[in-house]
Write a structure and sequence with these properties.
Amino acid/polyamine transporter I, mainly alpha, 17 helices, Putative amino acid permease YvbW, membrane, about 0% strand, globular, transport, Amino_acid_permease_CS
């Protein structure tokens, strides 16, 4: 291993990057947590997902444009730093690393719960340890092994969504046995399209934006993508369109088939529809799908965390020894540090009854919004510096994300917000100290 002669291997193909982004954005929250956003906004939540998708499109387009003009960038922090300064690079890098470390711990704990559905007698900590070891092994290999693994994990989730769209659409217009076709009657039958008014739409918007978090992992593949200046713009557009399709259509089918106020808070809305169609073993199928979703998110999280830590080390904003690569071009020391944080986070999640850990989980919400805001701001600033026309899309995204950020501050648990502020201040102070 060394830190100077070796470089990351450019082995990620366009299809790998596509699935990495989709895998990060389409998680267990889509299959189980979508009932929360529907409960808050009713059928009008469809508008929230469309607006969120438009914001995502503008942010991804700005990221892709900056990547074309900065071919040496390894992660999105290398796009932010030249435009917004070294502090922003340092701050965003450490916040994003912390974001994925916490998300990995939460997803690993969730994976253990899904596995215990079949293996009742196995302790949760054992199942969690097995999941962590599996994720570690995958990330020890060459990056194209990770890319292939994520391709198939994300592909399974998308296949389930496609099946759901086909079956749900058929049930919507043709009916099935004792279930008559309902068309779009339920969209306005129970209090109207916006039953909870603007307040409901605003509350659901916070949930929607969190569910889209993870799509920015496109910006973590810059150093390992084949021909990033050509691939990234195409992938950014395609990913946004696919995320819109795979969110909007399933949500439209759910709120059309089932009264929005009749959804269970504990059962996945997908289970409700599949049971209506008459598919056997629905509970086992959805448990497997959600297990796949959290494994995919954990896998993506490990990739993003260790690449960001490696890049921080390359830029002199983390200990230099973390910049070492293995013979397979994997940031091995950054991987070991990320694994240590993962195991520690899983221990906290299991032995604090979830309460203390839940306060820390507010941090990822802030982290994703901060990264998106900085990407939009950097795109606007880069256009100003080069004397080009201001990007209207990025300006809209910047304004919308700022409003959403304010909404998060006002609605998040106070204790979690205070912890997040303390972490941000600690990162900022550490920058001053290291300088």
């Amino acid at each position: 291993m060394n830190t100077n002669e070796q470089k990351l291997s450019r082995s990620l193909k366009a299809r790998h990057i596509m699935m990495i982004a989709l895998g990060g954005a389409i998680g267990a929250g889509m299959f189980k947590g979508s009932s929360t956003s529907i409960t808050l906004a009713g059928p009008g939540v469809i508008l929230d997902y469309i607006i969120g998708g438009i914001i995502l499109l503008f942010v991804m387009k700005g990221l892709a444009e900056m990547a074309v003009h900065n071919p040496k960038a390894k992660t999105f922090r290398d796009l932010l730093e030249p435009v917004l300064g070294p502090f922003v690079g340092y701050f965003s890098g450490w916040m994003y690393f912390l974001n994925w470390v916490l998300v990995m711990a939460a997803e690993t704990a969730a994976a253990a719960l899904f596995l215990q559905y079949w293996f009742h007698g196995v302790p949760l900590w054992v199942l969690s340890l097995l999941v962590s070891i599996g994720i570690t092994i995958i990330n020890l290999f060459h990056v194209n092994i990770y890319g292939e693994t994520e391709f198939w994990l994300a592909g399974l989730k998308i296949a389930v969504l496609v099946l759901f769209i086909l079956l749900g659409g058929t049930l919507l217009f043709t009916g099935y046995e004792n279930h008559p076709s309902v068309g779009f009657h339920h969209l306005t039958a129970n209090g109207g399209f916006f039953p909870n008014g603007i307040g409901g739409l605003a509350s659901a918007m916070l949930v929607v934006m969190f569910s889209f978090g993870g799509s920015e992992t496109i910006g973590m593949t810059l150093g390992e993508a084949e021909n990033p200046e050509k691939v990234l713009p195409r992938v950014a557009r395609s990913v946004t369109m696919r995320i819109l399709v795979f969110y909007v259509l399933p949500i439209l089918i759910i709120v059309s088939l089932v009264p929005w106020n009749g959804l269970s808070h504990t059962e996945s809305p997908f289970v409700t529809v599949f049971e209506a169609v008459g598919i056997p073993y629905v509970a086992d199928i959805m448990n497997f799908v959600m297990l796949t979703a959290v494994l995919s998110a954990t896998n993506t999280g490990m990739y993003a965390a260790l690449r960001m830590l490696y890049n921080q080390a390359l830029c002199g904003q983390a200990p230099k020894f973390l910049a070492a690569l293995s013979e397979r071009h994997v940031p091995i020391r950054a991987l070991l540090v990320s694994i240590a944080f993962l195991y520690f986070g899983v221990i906290i999640a299991f032995f604090t009854d979830g309460k203390t850990f839940d306060h820390f989980m507010v941090i990822p919400g802030y982290s994703v919004l901060i990264v998106w805001i900085l990407l939009a701001a950097a795109h606007v600033r880069s256009r100003i510096r080069t004397g080009q026309r201001l990007p209207v899309g990025s300006l809209f995204a910047l304004a919308a994300l700022t409003l959403i950020f304010i909404g998060v501050v006002l609605t998040s648990p106070l204790y979690g917000t205070l912890i997040s502020i303390a972490v941000m201040l600690l990162i900022a102070l550490s920058y001053k100290f290291l300088r």
